[in-house]
Amino acid sequence: MNDAREVVVLRYGHRPGRDDRMTTHVGLTARALGADRVIFPDNAGQSAETIRGVTDRFGGPFAVELRDDQKAFVGNWEGVVVHLTMYGERVQDVEGDVREAVGLDEPDVVGEASPPRDLLVVVGGEKVPWALYERADFNVGVTNQPHSEVAGLAVFLDRLFDGAELDREWADADRRVVPEATGKTVVDAEEGPAEEGPAEEGPAEGNGDGVEGAGEAADRD
Amino acid sequence: MNDAREVVVLRYGHRPGRDDRMTTHVGLTARALGADRVIFPDNAGQSAETIRGVTDRFGGPFAVELRDDQKAFVGNWEGVVVHLTMYGERVQDVEGDVREAVGLDEPDVVGEASPPRDLLVVVGGEKVPWALYERADFNVGVTNQPHSEVAGLAVFLDRLFDGAELDREWADADRRVVPEATGKTVVDAEEGPAEEGPAEEGPAEGNGDGVEGAGEAADRD
Predict the structure, then answer these.
(1) What confidence score (pLDDT) does residue B219 get?
(2) Best label site of A74, A80, A118, B203, fewest CB within 10 Å?
(3) How many angstroms away from the CA of B116 is the closest CA of chain A?
(4) What confidence tens digit (pLDDT) does each residue in A90-116 have?
(5) Which of residues 45-74 of A touch B (CB under 8 A)?
(6) This prediction's pTM
(7) Would A2 be classed as within a structural domain?
């Protein structure tokens, strides 16, 4: 969703079977919360297919890439690297610096914003090499507590974009969920606002459990 | 972490084996991001043990409860119920109303804050009954896109507490991670600030992958 810079999420490491669902959720979260692309290890093809399917149906642009050179990819990245880790600096302390480094800051004086730079957000999934801590421009902890790489990524992206990602519009979608106080309404993406178009009652996805993406992910991973 | 009100996360539904990791991550996220208690279905004992272990080591207070009466528990809840669902109202539109409903708002006039009320945040894990949509005071979508219930919970809690959860202090911890720009430092929780106490280099947890909780969760689920 970013015109001036590319924001890429890289999932470091993946154990097929065991990590399928977490990797899928990392990718779906990256897409939903404003990243432009996710990179998975090349053994995470099943998760990649799930993300592509969601993008086909709910819109993009959002790219999924499988690579076998993750270490080199991070090393050669020419923009800013953020590594999310519970050992890192507190997100509330460094988020301003990260925003400034990639040109998402809001300067006091108009016209003095930093130039846009691409951002790579690395999310670990297995033992992360020490070189990654050293290469990262920012090692960032969304709390210094053990929790979830999906949760850490979500909070980081929401703070990086300062909520703007929630207003993103989606291109080339087949369908669109209509936000409402009580209901599960999905319309063709071509239709106008819900109050004008006929609403199709029913679950958006197979199991229609009304959960944040669990229906999506659960059907496919 | 909340004195005036209790914030409880309820994981609705759990498929043993298949959902272990997601349920564990829901619980770890609830703990790390400011909830006071998590309630799992009674078949999620393994996830409950993981959360309790983390609380023993990294501190609390945080409670984990297994219940077989989730539907009745939600129905009988006397405070406010938020149900996170991709079909719900946009979080950016209703977060102010939720904060006001539980007394976390910041009124323009000092002394006019709403009274504190307990909050139950329901996170689906399987087909959520329609009655839950109707019982919820707020059906809230963290985006109306399919992604991850863990990501949705994380963003919701961060916005509910307006970031205050990140500054929470932990009681009765064995160990504490020292936030730093490059490093993986864990100290005994009794020690003072890192610059004063001797730092123990090394991973906090078994596999020490430096990931947001993946090490924790991966070791135990």
Answers:
(1) 34
(2) B203
(3) 23
(4) 999 999 999 999 999 887 777 777 899
(5) 54, 58
(6) 0.89
(7) no
Q: How far is A40 from chain B (nearest CA, A)?
A: 16
Does residue B30 share a domain with residue B118? yes
Residue of B nearest to A23 (CA): B148
Which token pair is B96? 């102010």
**Which residues in chain B are closer than 8 Å to A180, comparing Cβ atoms?**
87-89, 139
How many CB atoms sit inside 10 A of residue A111's CB?
A: 5
Tens digits of per-residue pLDDT, B29-50? 999 999 999 999 999 999 999 9
CATH of the domain at B131: 3.40.1280.10
**Does B181 share its domain with B163?**
no
Task: Select from A129, A146, A167 the last residue of a domain.
Answer: A167
Residue of B nearest to A123 (CA): B211
CB contact under 8 A, A207 and B123: no
DSSP structure class, residue A17: T
Q: Count up the domains in chain B and report the number.
A: 2
Quote ipTM for the complex: 0.88
Q: Confirm whether A210 is domain-assigned.
A: yes
pLDDT: which is higher, B112 or B90: B90
Residue range B118-138: mean pLDDT, rounded? 92
Taking an 8 Å cut-off on Cβ atoms, the answer to whether B209 and A184 are in contact is no
Last residue of a domain, one of B144, B167, B190: B167
Chain A contact set for B88 (CB, 8 A): 179-181
Do B104 and B187 lie in one domain? The reply is: no
Q: Is A47 exposed, middle or buried (0-12, 13-18, 19+ CB in 10 A)?
A: buried
- How many beta-carbon pairs below 8 A join chains A and B? 292
What is the band of A191 on the pLDDT scale with cuts at 50, 70, 90?
low
CB within 8 Å of chain B, chain A residues 159-198? 159, 163, 165-167, 170, 176-185
Beta strand spans in A91-152 (E)? 119-124, 138-141
In a domain, B1, yes or no: no
Q: Which residue has the tokens 């719900």?
A: B88
